[in-house]
Automatic annotation (TrEMBL):
The keyword Coiled coil is annotated on this UniProt entry: no
InterPro entries: Aminotrans_3 (IPR005814), Aminotrans_3_PPA_site (IPR049704), PyrdxlP-dep_Trfase (IPR015424), PyrdxlP-dep_Trfase_major (IPR015421), PyrdxlP-dep_Trfase_small (IPR015422)
GO molecular function: pyridoxal phosphate binding; transaminase activity
SUPFAM superfamilies: PLP-dependent transferases
Pfam families in the record: Aminotran_3 (PF00202)
The family this protein is said to belong to: Belongs to the class-III pyridoxal-phosphate-dependent aminotransferase family.
Descriptive protein name: Aminotransferase class III-fold pyridoxal phosphate-dependent enzyme
Domain of life from the UniProt record: Bacteria
Length: 452
């Protein structure tokens, strides 16, 4: 029987929830399915009808205000004035496809590359993270001559045919690429890694095992594709340097590392501008998505020149509006805002402050098994018992529903859906922590009181 998608189905509205909705929401959800089809998913048993956003907040159709602790796409905050102004000005001037010269595209490319290690010296633009990862897999295969890509067991890397086949989080109804192989993420909370010396060495050993298995099966190895915070796997940011052993294994075996920075990039982890930067490593390819333009349709793939040449000298690549002037204007405004408002430092300090509050809360609730994260990316793992670490899936779902009713929006991650994924916009500040903590505390109390 096909498994459900951990990222699509765990915290989703289902038909059996319809009877509990008010008349307007029930009508909208029914109309949405009739017009858009059944594949689309909505968050929450009682879906939120949002109509406006500003900074770290959203408002629904009734005027109720919410704290957004999940939406990373409007990275610098909903409707940031600098992004709005840049997009409006450029849209009023010109927007056209990318086979014409345009100075702002080149200026942004130089600016963005300056944030990356010097070895990554070329970049191509697309519209979505899915397209960026799709191209990255093609480039990796062209450079190495291999086909085998190693992924973590609950990874999500996109929804094109190629990237869906490299996204096990979509569930077993979506077949994996025949050359793809899975490894467990570097889970410092659950993995039995002590014999290997560190969780990073444990993870590297798992990667080597899959490379060896590929070799035995006649599958030529191409590379490792990872999200450096393992967000869909359950948020495993790890200690700085954790990923270095795995990078070494990949390179010793002739493969390339693709760092999917759609979620951890652009200052989110606080310690570094890029998620991989926390680990002192240099990927061969870096992909990025819509957070780079605060939600505008723009993405990118940066690569080492020699890696990209194997593809680009043979294949003429064209993405009609990938890196169009309007989306580039948004992306430049995001870069300028991250620097001008010191959002990387805010992510570092405010994220640490939040996790300190969560750790203190764990003294009160023994269902909180682990608190982990970096910057504005936090995982809160709920368990039925700290000794067994049994996932508290039903409790986690009740908690996020309770938080939604108290005006705080977030979701879950991990194979069991028991890890709260706290990933606010970079507009989230210290003053927002009290609202989040009060909502979480009350939701935990209510959920525990009503459990059988």
């Amino acid at each position: 029987m096909p498994t459900r998608s951990t990222i699509m189905d765990t915290n989703s509205f289902r038909a059996e929830h319809a009877d509990a909705l008010d008349d307007v929401t029930r009508e909208l959800t029914a109309k949405r399915e009739a017009l858009l089809g059944a594949s689309y998913r909505l968050f929450y048993r009682n879906p939120v009808h949002v109509v406006r956003g500003q900074g770290a907040y959203l408002w629904d159709a009734s005027g109720r205000k919410y704290l957004d602790v999940y939406n990373n796409v409007p990275s610098v905050g909903h409707a940031h004035p600098a992004v709005v102004a840049a997009v409006s000005a450029q849209m009023a001037t010109l927007n056209t496809h990318t086979r014409y010269l345009h100075g702002s595209v080149l200026a942004y490319a130089e600016d963005l590359l300056s944030t990356l290690p010097g070895e990554l010296d070329q970049i191509m633009f697309m519209c979505t993270g899915s397209e960026a990862n799709d191209l990255a897999i093609r480039v990796a295969r062209a450079y190495t001559g291999g086909t085998g890509i190693i992924l973590t067991s609950e990874a999500y890397h996109g929804n094109t045919e190629l990237t869906s086949a490299h996204s096990p989080a979509l569930g077993s109804s979506q077949p994996l690429d025949p050359a793809a192989r899975l490894v467990s993420p570097p889970d410092g909370y659950r993995a039995d890694w002590a014999a290997d010396g560190s969780v990073g060495q444990w993870f590297a050993a798992r990667v080597q095992e899959q490379i060896d298995a590929m070799r035995e099966q006649g599958v030529p190895f191409a590379g490792l594709l990872i999200d450096s915070v393992f967000s869909s796997d359950g948020v495993f940011t790890g200690e700085p340097g954790m990923l270095a052993p795995a990078f070494d294994v990949v390179h010793r075996n002739g493969g390339v590392v693709i760092a999917d920075e759609v979620q951890p990039g652009f200052a989110r982890t606080g310690d570094a501008f890029w998620g991989f930067g926390r680990h002192g490593v240099v990927p061969d390819i870096v992909t990025m998505g819509k957070p780079m333009g605060a939600g505008m349709p723009i993405s990118g793939m940066a690569a080492k020149r020699e890696v990209l040449e194997a593809f680009s000298l043979k294949v003429p690549y064209f993405n009609t509006f990938g890196g169009n002037p309007v989306s580039i204007a948004a992306a430049q405004a995001v870069l300028d805002t991250i620097r001008g408002e010191a959002l990387q430092e805010r992510a570092r300090t405010v994220g640490a402050e939040l996790r300190a509050s969560l750790t203190a809360l764990a003294d009160r609730f023994d269902v909180i098994g682990d608190v982990r994260g970096a910057g504005q990316f936090t995982g809160l793992e709920l368990v039925t018992s700290r000794s067994t670490k049994q996932p508290a899936t039903a409790l986690a779902l009740d908690v996020i529903e309770g938080m939604r009713e108290r005006g705080v929006l977030t979701s879950v991650a991990g194979p069991s859906g028991n890890i709260l994924k706290l990933r606010p916009t970079l507009a989230f500040q210290s003053g927002d922590i009290d609202w989040l903590m009060e909502s979480l505390t009350d939701a935990l109390v209510q959920a525990l009181e009503t459990r059988p």
